[in-house]
Automatic annotation (TrEMBL):
Record-annotated AMP-binding enzyme C-terminal domain positions: 519-598
Gene3D superfamilies (UniProt xref): 3.30.300.30, N-terminal domain of ligase-like (3.40.50.12780)
Species this chain originates from: Flavobacterium hankyongi
Gene: acs
Residue ranges occupied by any AMP-dependent synthetase/ligase domain in the UniProt entry: 70-461
Short name of one Pfam family: ACAS_N
GO terms assigned for molecular function: ligase activity
Keywords carried by this UniProt record: Acetylation, ATP-binding, Ligase, Nucleotide-binding
Segments forming domain Acetyl-coenzyme A synthetase N-terminal: 12-68
Record's protein name: Acetate--CoA ligase
Family of this protein: Belongs to the ATP-dependent AMP-binding enzyme family.
Lineage per the UniProt record: Bacteria, Pseudomonadati, Bacteroidota, Flavobacteriia, Flavobacteriales
Top-level lineage group: Bacteria
Enzyme class, broadest EC rank: ligase
Presence of keyword DNA damage: no
Length: 635
């Protein structure tokens, strides 16, 4: 039986056992039989959890774009690789064949080389969800440049911090982008960001909106004329298995964003394998993941995973609410989408609208539906399962992270029986464990603990760009010898996993990972603010929203509180992005602190939630009287 495609539950258990007992043999076979290599590996892996050192497919030579594009040309040259569905439904959708994709990526790769980009250089891509974004990413991979895609919703200072951190020499952006009713001014944000980014020498400009934008002489260049003059074939760079493929930033519970580094071969093998299995991908399927390519979900399951399998993948520029709340369902019908992969926050937002928006569409092309980004609550699970999946499409609740590169825990459709709110079982090769507070592994079932992974897998992030020490400390010290995910989980009586949420100071808002510390840092820059503490609280649509407890300086005391709150949110929006705005702001005279000066966030979380039943032990607080004051003035 094939190693690549899991056929039934018995096969799953067999493969799972093999992957644990003989991981080298397991991954060797998958890598060998399903990808094209310039040169195979000497050793499948060389790993050390203590030191956070991971090498996979040692000394193999490969280019991921040869696997995503070139190798399909003989059999699938005319097949559609990418369907582009524009924001405006009146604008025609674009079908880009594998042949066409090859030409576009080749041209872009040639342009990048002509413009001086070399293997190992970092290229920042700040683009809306248009085909050029996919082409730019693949062109970087083609020539061995390290792409660092930044979600086109981040503010200038967030963009600047990311560009500075990995010292990009080039930025690829556009004159703007469309999202629903809005036009976003990407170039303005880049211009502001680049004032503080001396390493950037060139900005390649894509035309999307035809807005007039200022062009800086000697730095900014329109891309189209360069592409028109470029050759439409390109010899791919020969990459080592462990050469960096991309950097993608994710929030930490403290400090600046972490540039997670993924390398070539392991990422390729794992995303290809998981795409095939988790979505039950078959030739002629039309796959649609609604994430943005600016997040890991888009990297792995809009681009790399589908293209590695020669699939047709949809790139959607718009939003679920434009022109109305049936847009998702309309697009599924229009393109006969077979697999649909979205986030619980989108499901909840759509579920609160009139049922007619979805019921008007038979959605009979759908085969599998998926969820990602945060725990999916029971109500949303059933709504999605009933009204979108028609109770006939398996719903795969996929748990994973930017750091893991690919899906880790998920049902396999038509194989693993699903259970509402459960991500269910680990994929082959993944060994989850639950740990207690004493750092012991919790055996048996019907238990909860901190979710760790005790054995490496091919697409584990290799480091945090420029800070390996931080990588080790963040993920490999809390539970020595294990990778700590930052999530809590429950294991039920049959061994299914349910992710219960973050156990650190990260809050997932509308599926976006936000560290509370950087938001607090932004707020504290306001001249009237002395100190602040941010916590998450449950929100019907966003999953979580942010609640800020803020202590004012004397200068702030006399100011109008509404105006202050507005200014503070503007500051957060400028520094991080609108997504990080606080839903609630409460001005307080103090924060509950332990004797060692640590804010007791669990009390603030309870107050934000409106749960005053039991604050637990507050005897270690320096100022227990503050709890009542904060509670009584909750907003
Ligand atoms: C965090 C990672 C990986 C895709 C997008 C998010 C939460 C992700 C699930 C799920 C419960 C989930 C976790 C995780 N999360 N998927 N199916 N059920 N929680 O990537 O931004 O790196 O965030 O998202 O808390 O640690 P990310």
């Amino acid at each position: 039986m094939s190693y690549y495609k899991i056929q039934n539950l018995e096969h799953y258990f067999k493969m799972y056992k093999k992957s644990v007992r003989e991981p080298k043999k397991f991954w060797d076979k998958i890598a060998d039989e399903n990808f094209v290599w310039y040169q195979k590996w000497d050793k499948v892996f060389d790993v050390n959890m203590q030191e956070a050192q991971f090498k996979w497919f040692l000394d193999a030579k490969v280019n991921i774009t040869k696997n995503c594009i070139d190798r399909h040309l003989a059999r699938r040259g005319d097949k559609t690789a990418i369907i582009f569905e524009p924001n405006n439904p009146e604008e025609e959708a674009l079908h880009i064949s594998y042949n066409e994709l090859y030409k576009r990526v080749s041209k872009m790769a040639n342009v990048l080389r002509e413009q001086g980009v070399k293997k190992g250089d970092r290229v920042c891509i700040y683009l809306p969800m248009i085909p050029e974004l996919a082409v730019a990413v693949l062109a970087c991979a083609r020539i061995g440049a390290i792409h660092s895609v930044i979600f086109a919703g981040f503010s200038a200072s967030a963009v600047a911090a990311r560009i500075q951190d990995c010292e990009c020499s080039m930025v690829i952006t556009s004159d703007g982008g469309y999202r629903g009713e809005k036009t976003i001014n990407l170039k303005g944000i880049i211009d502001e960001a680049l004032e503080k980014c001396p390493t950037v020498e060139k900005v390649l400009m894509v035309k999307r909106t035809h807005e007039t934008v200022p062009m800086k002489d000697g730095r900014d260049i329109w891309l189209q004329p360069l592409l028109d003059n470029a050759l439409d074939n390109n010899v791919a760079e020969i990459m080592d298995a462990e050469d960096p493929l991309f950097i993608l930033y994710t929030s930490g519970s403290t400090g600046k964003p972490k540039g997670m580094l993924h390398t070539t071969a392991g990422y390729m093998v794992y995303t290809g394998y998981t795409f095939k299995n988790v979505f039950n991908y078959e030739e002629n399927d039309i796959f649609w993941c609604t994430a943005d390519i600016g997040w890991i979900t888009g990297h792995s399951y809009i681009l790399y995973g589908p293209l590695l399998n020669g699939a047709t993948t949809v790139i959607f520029e718009g939003v679920p609410s434009y022109p109305d709340f049936s847009r998702f369902w309309e697009v599924i019908e229009k393109h006969n989408v077979t697999q649909f992969y979205t986030a619980p926050t989108a499901i909840r937002a759509l579920a609160k609208e009139n049922l007619d928006y979805v019921q008007r569409f038979p959605l009979s092309s759908l085969k599998v539906i998926g969820s990602v980004g945060e725990p999916i609550n029971e109500e949303a699970w059933h709504w999605y399962n009933d009204h979108v999946g028609g109770k006939r499409c398996p719903l795969v609740d996929t748990w994973w992270q930017t750091e893991t590169g690919g899906i880790m825990i998920s049902p396999i459709p038509f194989v693993t029986p699903t259970k509402p709110t459960y991500a269910s079982l680990p994929l082959p090769g993944i060994q989850p464990v639950l740990m207690d507070e004493l750092r012991n592994e919790i055996e048996g079932n019907q238990v909860t603990g901190s979710l760790c992974i005790k054995f490496p897998w091919p697409s584990i992030a290799r480091t945090i760009w420029g800070d390996h020490q931080r990588y080790k400390e963040t993920y490999f010290t809390a539970f020595p010898g294990k990778y700590f995910t930052g999530d809590g989980a429950l294991r039920d009586e049959v061994g299914y996993y349910r992710i219960t949420g973050r156990v650190d100071d990260v809050v997932i808002v509308s599926g976006h990972n936000l560290g509370t510390a950087p938001i607090e840092d932004a707020i504290n820059e306001h001249p009237a603010v002395a100190e602040s503490a941010i916590v998450g609280f449950p929100h019907d649509i966003k999953g979580n929203a942010l609640y800020g407890f803020i202590i004012l300086k004397e200068v702030g005391e006399s100011r109008d509180r509404n105006n202050l709150a507005k200014e503070i949110n503007q500051l957060v929006s400028d520094q991080i992005g609108p997504i990080a705005k606080l839903d609630k702001i409460q001005f307080v005279s103090g924060l509950p602190k332990t004797r060692s000066g640590k804010i007791m966030r669990r009390i603030l979380r309870k107050i934000a939630e409106g749960d005053f039943s039991n604050f637990g032990d507050i005897s270690t607080l320096l100022n227990p009287e503050i709890v009542d004051e904060i509670k009584d003035n909750r907003v």
